[in-house]
Hints:
The structure is a single chain. By secondary structure, the protein is of the alpha/beta class. The chain has helices at 13-24, 39-48, 51-54, 93-110, 123-134, 146-161, 194-199, 205-216, 218-226, 233-247, 292-315, and strands at 5-9, 29-33, 60-63, 74-77, 115-118, 141-143, 168-169, 172-173, 181-182, 188-189, 192-193, 252-261, 267-278, 281-285. Helix content is 43%, strand content 19%. Helix 4 links the parallel strand 4 (74-77) and strand 5 (115-118). Keywords: NAD, Oxidoreductase, Tricarboxylic acid cycle.
Amino acid sequence: MARKKIALIGAGNIGGTLAHLAASKELGDIVLFDVAEGIPQGKALDLAQCAPVEGFDVNLKGSNDYADIAGADVIIVTAGVARKPGMSRDDLLGINLKVMKAVGEGIAANAPNAFVICITNPLDAMVWALREFSKLPHHMVVGMAGVLDSARFRHFLADEFKVSVQDVTAFVLGGHGDTMVPVVEYSTVAGIPIPDLIEMGWSTKERIDAIVARTRAGGGEIVGLLKTGSAFYAPATSGIEMAEAYLKDKKRVLPAAVHLSGQYGVDGLYVGVPCVIGAGGVEKVVEIKLNAEAQANFTVSVDAVKELLVACKAIDGSLN
Length: 320
Ligand code: APR
């Protein structure tokens, strides 16, 4: 059986890390595409030289030509600019919207059957715009945010409870921004919900509230430390988890920015909710009943995403 093909659009910090992870896991042959000449070629060659040491058998190619993504099974998009200290994800909107137009047209012309995972920020607006520009079916275009946000939440919770991260599950809804909604009632240690753990004396409401706030600002904390860019290891591994769910038809239940058509009372927007990802792309949106507080926070988050789309449409009239 021929190997699968993974195209990575954007060969920067996340793109390079994605390529290394995809190669180590032998997910398929890899094309690294970027507008910068030499960067994707250099990274592909460097990574190919890991193969004898790590023992993976995949082809790696760097390219500045969209023709090289032809036939890709999965495309992961990180093209664009990343945040610097003092910038919000929304500050990236104008520049990255133009990038999504070029990328969307490149995908439509060369790999219209791919499952596309967008990571570029501001995520909920960029994944929507990428879908509009590429015209791929909605269930084949998703945004990676929830896996990362819940990984951040799980890390902080495991640290608080002094238990393995493996036993912590977390539930995060809404847009990938400061309005995201970590839902404590659905976040657990080995199935025990956090409110029960508070009652058991494992933590306090105040400490959990602080963890929720730190999770919401999780990306900004890293930008502030790195100063020259934004997080890339955890975003990359989160993107790979989604790609693997599709390629191996795992039917993983993962939080992702998916197109909603009435679920959660939202129509025509990409917002973070749990969904099932398998060989059919987004196979199902998991629609749970939210308590009043989570619903109110979710509405605030959805409104923030709506505002971003208004801004996108003002910049590019073809999106109206
Ligand atoms: N087409 C392809 N690649 C592009 C384009 C384009 N039109 N415009 C820019 N790029 C490339 C850049 O040349 C760079 O190599 O995108 C790459 C981005 O890499 P980094 O600056 O290292 O950014 P990274 O940390 O990988 O983050 C990428 O993901 O999480 C988000 O906020 C983050 O939007 C940012 C994106």
